Amino acid sequence: DIQMTQSPSTLSASVGDRVTITCRASQTISSWLAWYQQKPGKAPKLLIYKASSLESGVPSRFSGSASGTEFTLTISSLQPDDFATYYCQQYNSYSRTFGQGTKVEIK
Amino acid sequence: EVQLLESGGGLVQPGGSLRLSCAASGFTFSNYAMTWVRQAPGKGLDWVSDISGSGGTTYYADSVKGRFTISRDNSKNTLYLQMNSLRAEDTAVYYCAKRRNWNDDAFDIWGQGTMVTVSS
Fold first, then answer.
1. B89 by DSSP, 3-state: which?
2. Where are the beta strands (DSSP E) in A2-107?
3. Is the pLDDT of residue B108 over 90?
4. DSSP for residue A69
5. Interface of A with B in 18-37 (CB under 8 A)
6. Is the per-residue pLDDT at B20 higher than 90?
7. Measured CA distances, A104 to A40, A79, A82, B104 (Å)
8. Residue B26 has what DSSP assignment?
């Protein structure tokens, strides 16, 4: 199975900060990577698909990029609504592995 | 509005069975592959199973293979997950999710989840 290593596990930041979360795949997954946001007690929400494509309705402050097997989610200017947990997920092969999650907390 | 609504969760004893349902609306259900993902209390997301739009192709995580069965009834716009031989480690919120399209397997629409608790 492909392993997804996500870092950091927790991130403390302030409103307005630029935030970067990284996900590394254990083998090549092409660009088949998604990023999800999850708030407590709620279902995950798709933010980015195919590594860098912004899902419809998602604010443009969210962006994704890829370099080989390393993938990055960037929030250009953190907003109060962005404090949540973020997960990466590969869908190059079965099983559809998720990263361990990154909790973005208020500093 | 595109919507998914899970039901069927509850408390079940170890070794027992449960069937989850996911009612879909707002899109042509049979055109989309569907997925079950679970989340144990306080833990991360864990993919469980996938099924093609026709229902002819299915995939399972190793942890549930041989115990869980995914199926769908396209005439009823409903996805199912039959869970047998349940274990304590199957305790989780179970989400159904829709795949984006034929060309991209990201999960773009999620249900609200249904809680399954396996305990004596």
1. helix
2. 4-7, 10-13, 19-25, 33-38, 45-49, 53-54, 62-67, 70-75, 85-90, 102-106
3. yes
4. T
5. 32, 34, 36
6. yes
7. 12, 11, 8, 27
8. S
Report the distance separating Cα B55 and Cα A73, nearest Å: 34
Closest Cα in chain A, distance from residue B13 (Å): 24
- Residue B37 makes CB contacts below 8 A (sequence gap 6+) with A44, B45, B46, B47, B48, B94, B95, B96, B97, B107, B110
Name the closest residue on chain A to residue B35, using Cα atoms.
Answer: A96
Give the chain B residue nearest A102 (alpha carbons).
B44
pLDDT in tens, A21-80: 999 999 999 999 999 999 999 999 999 999 999 999 999 999 999 999 999 999 999 999
State residue A67 phi and psi, 5-degree precision.
Answer: -145, 100
